[in-house]
Amino acid sequence: MLKQENSDKSFLDCPVAGIQDIIKGKWTTVILYFLSQSTLRFGELNRKMPMVTQAYLTKELRILENYGLIHREVYPQVPPKVEYSLTAMGKKFIPVLDALEKFAIEYEQDNQK
Amino acid sequence: MLKQENSDKSFLDCPVAGIQDIIKGKWTTVILYFLSQSTLRFGELNRKMPMVTQAYLTKELRILENYGLIHREVYPQVPPKVEYSLTAMGKKFIPVLDALEKFAIEYEQDNQK
DNA sequence: CAGGATCCGCCGCGATACTG
DNA sequence: CAGTATCGCGGCGGATCCTG
């Protein structure tokens, strides 16, 4: 269930063009980062990023779910419990996160002198 | 010249939080990808991504320049000539591009069956 | 507890026209 | 050729209230 065709970059001679949409969300990489460390309940995840609203966090989670990167497991009980984890495809994104992390550290070091 | 403080993610226990702003632009990764292959004039770059407006391409280039990832070399001549290339910091972003490329290929393969 | 439903300001992104 | 200058729309991102 892809969100196809934003401005047809498909014919672009650039492999990364197609996935820009995935990572452009304001908190996508952060969410994926936390979920790469451990499966988390909604509340736990939200507590790790308190500046994000419930509503918006839900939205981004749905988007990532539609992209097939995260899995949403609902436990039918009271009170409700929902756990988020990376799918197989989501785990393939981890190298990107690692590279990003490495770059981020170098970037911030270089930038505070 | 960082664009500080959008919603203070700095205290977030996540290394990648700080650079989400850099990669959130609609064409950032594509621009960096092309420039990682070779130094390019404005027109050349624009021809490689024709669906992007001159105006907007200029904007994103300025942003990446302000972030210190690309270098803008102006040749004072008529007609004018401007070349864009990666800075040292920009080159440190290449591993991210490589990881993204790898992921993109796997992602798109998996998604058309 | 984990969301769904609304409402809304702002700016990302684009189209178009004009310059040195 | 490589930009600036305007103008405008749509939707991202957020606040706030309500539910099973």
UniProtKB/TrEMBL annotation, chains A, B:
Domain of life: Bacteria
GO MF assignments: DNA binding
Domain HTH hxlR-type per the UniProt entry, residue ranges: 14-112
Keywords: DNA-binding, Transcription, Transcription regulation
SUPFAM superfamilies assigned: Winged helix' DNA-binding domain (SSF46785)
Keyword DNA-binding: yes
InterPro entries, A to Z: ArsR-like_HTH (IPR011991), HTH_HxlR (IPR002577), WH-like_DNA-bd_sf (IPR036388), WH_DNA-bd_sf (IPR036390)
CDD domains per record: HTH_ARSR
PROSITE patterns attached to this UniProt entry: HTH_HXLR
Official protein name in the record: Helix-turn-helix transcriptional regulator
Provenance organism: Companilactobacillus halodurans
